[in-house]
Amino acid sequence: MKILLVEDDLDLSLVLKKALQKELYTIDIAPCLADASHLLTHFRYDLILLDLMLPDGNGITFCQKLRARGEGIPLIILTAKDTIMDRVFGLDSGADDYLAKPFSLAELMARIRARLRNPITPENPLALKIADLEIDQRTKKVTRGGKLILLTPKEYRLLEFLALNQDATLSEEIIKEALLDFEEQTLSNVISVYIYRLRNKIDKDHSVKLIHTLRGIGYRFGYL
């Protein structure tokens, strides 16, 4: 599952990113509404976590615009504005849930799970299928040709990230920023090591290869 966190507090963003990654979610962080709009144009997300008071505008207006153009992505507001009227206005503006700061991580995780239990729709699929590879985003089960593939948590997150960005060219820096803790990002060959391990599990013994290395550029997932 891929989540967009729209939050300008860097410390809070890093705490949430680390906590969500432990739950096997893939996280992109946008510190402002302009960055959020850019990411939504280029990537598909399963859920948005949205602060309201951002440097370039109000999250409520952003939420209203999303709904006005038919975007059905589940959206949870995270904000210090905690009056009853604030909550009512946020929900009436199109948010699916509203959580006032400070909040517990356990409660946030529960609310995210509740939002992602929605029925599968074209806008919010919970299963990914590429060739004969199937990824169940709810159970984290991966199969290829009907055969179960056992992955470590980091291998699963990498595979899901690649599959969610199928046919896009992803540099090592993009993958590092999306998936790794700060300490791991400093390791020079960490992504190539994970790709090697994942390729051995996903592509080995299959004539159709899904993980492709573009020398000097990055990686691409899907058919070439």
From TrEMBL:
InterPro entries for this protein: CheY-like_superfamily, OmpR/PhoB-type_DNA-bd, Sig_transdc_resp-reg_receiver, WalR-like, WH-like_DNA-bd_sf
Record feature DNA-binding region, as residue ranges: 125-223
Keywords linked to the UniProt accession: DNA-binding, Phosphoprotein, Transcription, Transcription regulation, Two-component regulatory system
OmpR/PhoB-type domain residues: 125-223
GO (cellular component) term, any one: protein-DNA complex
GO molecular function: phosphorelay response regulator activity; transcription cis-regulatory region binding
PROSITE patterns xref list: OMPR_PHOB, RESPONSE_REGULATORY
Modified positions (4-aspartylphosphate) in chain numbering: 51
Domain named Response regulatory: residues: 2-116
Domain of life: Bacteria
GO BP, sorted A to Z: regulation of DNA-templated transcription
Name by which UniProt lists this protein: TRANSCRIPTIONAL ACTIVATOR PROTEIN COPR
